[in-house]
Amino acid sequence: MKRLGRLRLKILVNFRLISPPFEGGGRGGCVFMKSNKQSLNETLLSVAEIDPSLPSLDLHGLSVHEAELEVDHFLSQQLFYEEPVVKIICGAGTGVLADAIWEFVQKHPMVQRANSKGSEIFVVL
Question: Does 31 have pLDDT greater than 90?
Fold first, then answer.
């Protein structure tokens, strides 16, 4: 069960066999791997766009350096609270802040996937 804001989602993740079982059958010795983690992240991003209770950070009025510090702190905090998806609001303006934060988020080690939609960036942790 995944929690996304106030929504609770039951998401089934398919597994695929990546190594054969040992002789004797059964499940002993089988190695399974999630085969569609990317699909899970895409689903979380899609649902996040319509969830008004999503944790968000508004960066209006901040410099690029200040905004990067705030984003880093916000992502750490939300990961601690086990929030799977967050929203970062950059504002339209000239686009300098939005571009800088987009690049920052893409390189951030806690970010699994991100999606930019206008002046908002949705991030899967």
Answer: no
